[in-house]
Design brief:
Strands 2, 32, 33, 34, 35 and 36 form a six-stranded antiparallel β-sheet that branches. The chain is globular and about 65 Å long. It starts with a helix and ends with a strand. It is mainly beta and about 550 residues long.
């Protein structure tokens, strides 16, 4: 595919593109099944954990990768394991448990994989006779409720979520699995992302696809902030607007979306889903993942939707093919939308995260890493006031000190090129993913700092703080240690944007230890850690549930 010209300017770009990492440590212990720890256990604290931190760091991710003699194929397939680090008065306790999803219960009851996941197709039950096994091939794959991606919040309640139509309400204190919630009972969608956005008043926005006889639609969903009764879940949710895909039979895959004060920004990227392959996957004995592919011939297109009216902008913003899993932030300023995202120039990485790849060692592991594209933080500047009188062939980005470009090329079409939100030092740390900000105060607003994991390995192996004003990077890195997504917790009387702490669950291969790390978000120095006496697998996303 054609490479964005901005990226070529970097002297290290071609080194990055043709990475030749050697001698990576084997990370098999990070992707092995573990036992749950349902009762709280004490941890050993060293250093000092500020006493003003009161609450639970909640984490989600796969924790069981086989049933009986059947194994899952993809990292995303493992059974959801919920983790809680309870912080009170400078002390920390830990507990974990498997989400009691229907998938987990069915699999456990038969000690085999009964429910298909993203990269694993459940084979016909051998207890059925041949004819029934044959007929079962013609059934649609049922959507899994294995909500292993994130903790999310709607109407003040915590849920665990994945990318199907199912979520589970969870008690953040006990981690007990409560209600199973089906999006289709409330709005006409077949799935929803695991990354909603929330306005200051608690109103939540999400996106989900719907599939009908005329093909797919992308839908923006709005969920009210309050309940009419204590047992409510998604009552009152509505589809704000629907966007027609460029190809209704091959819609784009998306893991998240962006939001400003007044707009939802949907990124239609060239990671495509072949609906015919997905619908017939069980018949063909293939996993859903086989229907997801990268098409570098296609542009990435940004769609702007007014959050208040549901009206979609007629102007479409195009850029070169790129893949996006997570946005950093987005905000409006001076008649522009600033859209900050972690972007890669290739969308094939998702196929590399097979469990067998993550468990490789030596040259085989190096090869997997060196063929996996890395994500880097980039900013696109989208002009809001494009109309028939807007000149073509002119850079519409008039913001000083911004190298991003936005050029109208035709009616209702603007072509954009990004500017980098980093210096060359980020190449050394393998790019940045799992981005986080001071969300409660700076989401949808101009901001200075964001945090994330560096990826010199297939999972995060450093914690990074990026200063957008100075383009400077602060790094926490210890060889053989693998930190999780950093979660920012503001201090009680915070004035400055970075006045608070970073919480991250760190897994160490050196001494096979696990600990909760607490960093001063301003200085990036370690304040304390709480060592956990059990193994924890590497997970995905988390949230801080304040009890102060």
């Amino acid at each position: 595919p054609e490479i964005n010209s901005n990226a070529i300017k970097h002297p290290l770009y071609h080194i990055l593109l043709n990475s030749n990492q050697k001698g990576l440590e084997c990370i098999t212990p990070l992707v092995n099944s573990v036992e749950e720890t349902p009762e709280s256990i004490a941890t050993e604290v060293s250093g000092t954990i500020p006493t003003w931190i009161r609450g639970n760091l909640l984490r989600n991710g796969p924790g069981k990768f086989e049933f009986g003699n059947q194994h899952y194929n993809h990292w995303f397939d493992g059974m959801a394991m919920l983790h809680q680090f309870k912080i009170v008065d400078g002390k920390v306790t830990y507990r974990s448990c498997f989400l009691r999803s229907d998938a987990y219960k069915k699999n456990s009851e038969r000690d085999r994989i009964m429910v298909s996941e993203f990269g694993t197709v459940a084979m016909p039950d051998p207890c059925k006779n041949f004819f029934l096994r044959f007929l079962s091939r013609f059934e649609m794959i049922e959507a899994t409720d294995n909500a292993s991606v994130s903790f999310v919040k709607y109407k003040g309640d915590y849920y665990v979520s994945t990318e199907t139509n199912f979520m589970h309400k969870v008690d953040p204190e006990s981690l007990e699995t409560m209600n199973k919630v089906d999006w289709t009972k409330f709005v006409a969608v077949n799935m929803a992302t695991a990354h909603p956005h929330t306005d200051p008043d608690g109103t939540a926005f999400n996106m989900g696809n719907s599939y009908g006889t005329k093909g797919a639609l992308y839908n923006i969903i709005k969920v009210p902030s309050t309940k009419n009764n204590p047992d409510e879940t998604l009552e009152g949710a509505k589809v704000l607007c629907s966007i027609i895909p460029a190809d209704k039979s091959r819609p784009s895959y998306y893991h998240s979306f962006a939001m400003t004060e007044n707009y939802v920004v949907f990124i239609e990227q060239p990671i495509k889903m072949d609906l015919l392959k997905i619908i017939t996957s069980k018949l063909r004995g293939k996993a859903i993942s086989q229907g997801v592919y990268w098409d570098p011939k296609l542009d990435t297109v940004f769609h702007l939707v007014d959050k208040h009216t549901g009206k979609t902008s007629s102007t479409k913003f195009h850029t070169k093919p790129l893949s996006v899993f997570h946005q950093i932030n987005a905000f409006e300023e001076d008649g522009f939308v600033m859209l900050d995202m972690c972007c890669a120039d290739n969308g094939d990485a998702i196929k590399n995260y097979l469990i067998q790849n993550l468990r490789k060692s030596g040259e085989a592991l190096d090869q997997v890493y060196n063929t996996t594209s890395r994500a880097f933080p980039r900013r696109f500047v989208l002009p809001l006031n494009v109309n028939d009188d807007t000149p073509t062939g002119v850079n519409l980005n008039t913001r000083p000190a911004s190298s991003a470009t936005s050029v109208k090329t035709a009616k209702d079409e603007v072509v954009c090129h990004f500017e980098d939100l980093h210096g060359d030092d980020l190449f050394e740390y393998g790019g940045l993913e799992f981005p986080q900000i001071n969300y409660s105060k700076f989401n949808t607003r101009p901001y200075r700092y964001f945090y994330g994991c560096g990826f010199q390995h297939l999972v995060g192996d450093s914690l990074l703080k990026m200063d957008l004003k100075e383009k400077k990077l602060k790094v926490w890195y210890k060889k053989g240690m693998f930190p999780s997504e950093p979660v920012f917790v503001p201090s009680p009387e915070a004035v400055d944007e970075d006045d608070g702490v970073i919480l991250s669950n760190v897994l160490s291969l050196q001494d096979k230890s696990t600990f909760l790390l607490v960093l001063d978000a301003r200085t990036w120095e370690e304040l304390g850690r709480a060592e956990v006496p059990v193994n924890i697998p590497y997970g995905f996303h988390g949230a801080f549930n304040s009890t102060a």
